[in-house]
Amino acid sequence: MKAIDKSLQAADRLQQRRTVLAFPVAVWSKFNDDQAGNLAALISYYAFAAIFPLLLILVTVLNIVLRNDPQLQQDLINSALAQYPVVGQQIKANLGSISGTGLPLIIGIIFLLLGARGVAGAMQNAMCVVWGIPKERRPGFPLSIAWSLALVLSIGIGFIATTFLSGLAGGAGHVLTGAGAYVATVAVSLVVNLGMFWLGFRLATFFQVRWRDLRTGSAIAAVCWQALQVAGGYVVSHQLHRASELYGTFGIVLGLMAWLFLQSEVTLYAAEIDVVLARRQWPVSILPAPVTEETPAAMTEEKEQERPAIPGPRGHAEGPEHVGHNGAAGWFSRARRAVGRR
Question: Which of 40, 120, 178, 335 could pair with 265 in a Cys bridge, judged by C-beta atoms 3.0 to 4.6 Å apart?
Fold first, then answer.
């Protein structure tokens, strides 16, 4: 055991001396300390509940704005569903639109937005935990609803902008070569995603974190999301194939949940990087702190000090030294202490 302990201590000292090792270890350690995996699971749960209302709003808006261009409608919807590899076509097959016009349509959209704000609340809570923003500094009701809706709208508008610009860049294949159109699509999506994450992180922390402290994590999140879009087809199809063999149709749901959880976890890792950079929280030790053993006398004294005062027969509070010292027994113990002091 001593040889193993010495090896672990040597490895710990090595990673603390080298920034290239100490920084990712610090990010990983803070991610675990914040229990960010549980926060990512909560975000993915609310994202799963919000994805259909938000897509329903998108389809409804496109039906109104692009009523005379159904082909462009389908292109934009397909671009939006491409954010969810493999399962996107399954979602499209079960996606409708809000019926009605005028006031009923507006009311329907408002209720859908209110129902979708749960994912914004989960993201705001996660970012506040990551940055250590206490509840006293977070907006209460009804401002919390306004902040959640602002985050939903900013991410939603960025999502639509990414979809629209990606569609335009993809359509530039008439002029550019196939490789040129693909590079343009990736570049445009990356820039828009960067701006969307930067603004989203700022809103999720209620403007209590400076813009410059959020730029690195925003860039990393945008790049990682773009990489997930490229490699997501393989990841989700592999997960979906395994899940479908076991669960049938429910495998689609599990595949979508796995995809949303992966996105949430990557986003929180990017946020943790911002915190570690801004507060220079590296290096850190990967070994547990040594446990100090207290002597029995010290533990007994500490317990005696923590005992609450017990009211005496006349209503006066009595500490541990007064308990059981009433009457003759109490007089005898006080006299003995007086003799000892002499």
Answer: 40
